[in-house]
Design goal:
The protein has 138 residues and is an alpha/beta fold. The protein has a single domain, classed as Hypothetical Protein Ychn, Chain: A, CATH 3.40.1260. The chain has 5 helices and 5 strands; from the N terminus they run αβαβαβαβαβ. Strands 4-3-2-1-5 form a 5-stranded parallel beta sheet, sandwiched between helices. It is globular and about 45 Å long.
Length: 138
């Protein structure tokens, strides 16, 4: 009787840990970075590139949210052009905080078409974290 009980427990543990390991093995790694300065896009994009190489097939989404008083810099194509090109190449999504655009009176029409605008960048960051994204704020 003890043998059947121990065998059953061992079998259940094996199945449970096997399913858990499989779930972790198949999961994607998603990242979000909140930044206040356009020049910080350079090291963030380098990080995205390295993580994409490191994660391989497990690399999921990578989003960069730009907020704060320097949000107007995203409308300057001389500052943003190379970052937009690299982000597109890597599959990284660039996101502008609508709250910051409004507060600092930046024309939403001047935001590059490649960028997504969300109503509130900080709220959007928290929503992504609730979905399991790893988050960093600079």
């Amino acid at each position: 009787m003890k043998t059947i009980l121990y065998s059953s427990i061992l079998l259940m543990l094996t199945l449970f840990t096997g399913n858990q390991a499989q779930a972790q093995h198949n999961s994607k790694h998603n990242y979000v970075v909140l930044t206040k300065k356009v020049p910080q896009l350079q090291p963030i994009l380098i990080t995205a590139e390295r993580l994409k190489e490191e994660d391989g097939a497990h690399f999921g989404e990578f989003e960069i949210i730009i907020c704060g008083k320097e949000i107007g810099d995203i409308t300057d194509s001389s500052k943003m052009g190379k970052f937009i090109t690299k982000a597109e190449k890597l599959g990284v999504k660039l996101v502008a905080c609508g709250f910051s655009l409004n507060k600092f009176k930046v024309d939403k029409e001047a935001v590059p078409k490649e960028m997504k605008v969300v109503e509130n960048g900080i709220l959007y960051n928290f929503q992504l974290q609730k979905k399991g994204y790893l988050s960093l704020s600079l």
